[in-house]
Amino acid sequence: MTTSSVFASSPGPAPPGGPFDGDTLDHIAERLETEGYAVVPNALPPEHVNRLFLALKETPAADFRRAGIGRKDDFQLNRFVRSDEICWLHGDTPAARDFLSWMEALRQGLNRRLFLGLFDYEAHYAAYPEGAFYKKHLDAFKGRSNRVLSTVFYLNPNWQPTDGGELVIYNEADNQELERVLPEYGKLVIFLSEVFPHEVLPARRERYSIAGWFRVNNTAAGAPDPAR
Ligand code: OGA
Ligand code: MN
């Protein structure tokens, strides 16, 4: 996907204190509106990306847990579905706090443009050891989740096409491949959680990302918020 044409034409005020300028927010909103997903290379200032990467590398291995599937009641470990390891972000390093505040700027910027009513955000680091994968799945099922928008931010310096590990996004209706995304350093992918089946292909080296979800608040509407 090329982004230059869109970036070239839409002026807009930068959000106060946020890393996303108005053009980037306009671009993301426009892609979400027309395609339902957006791929943004070099989404954040490089020095911040480097800090995030260092913070990730300094996170003790013991803080990472094998990821499961399903919700609270039917949570299960299933090595055939996914084999990554995750560590939830609680803002306990300056870099993680930065990241969460950028996503807050993104949340506000998208709410202003698309009226999505995004309420909060949750995210985890994910480490895919060499050969790890995440089979085709949806991040949310209609009416069963409050996850609305999925984000994936990649932290893999010098990722090469031969390294594999692509995120493959599918069209829900006919299962055709829409996009194959290399998990390149500083790239952000955003998509509607209920709409796009996607998978992570096995990689030939360790692969790092921050996966996150903007959520709406269903509790206010009288329905109990489902656990993740
Ligand atoms: C997920 C996911 C994609 C990726 O964590 O749900 O689909 O590219 N991650 O890491
Ligand atoms: Mn997913």
Explain briefly what this protein structure is:
The chain has 228 residues and is an alpha+beta fold. The protein has a single domain (25-218), classed as q2cbj1_9rhob like domain (Jelly Rolls, Sandwich). The protein contains four helices and eleven strands.
What does this structure look like?
The protein has one domain: Jelly Rolls (Sandwich), CATH 2.60.120. It starts with a helix and ends in a 13-residue tail after the last strand. The chain is built from four helices and eleven strands; from the N terminus they run H-H-E-H-E-E-H-E-E-E-E-E-E-E-E. It is globular, with a radius of gyration of 17 Å. Strands 1-9-6-11-4-3-2 form a seven-stranded antiparallel sheet, with helices on one face. The chain has a four-stranded antiparallel sheet with strand order 5-10-7-8, with no helix packed on it. By secondary structure, it is an alpha+beta fold. Helix 2 packs across helix 4 and helix 3 packs across helix 4. N-oxalylglycine binds next to strand 10 and strand 11.
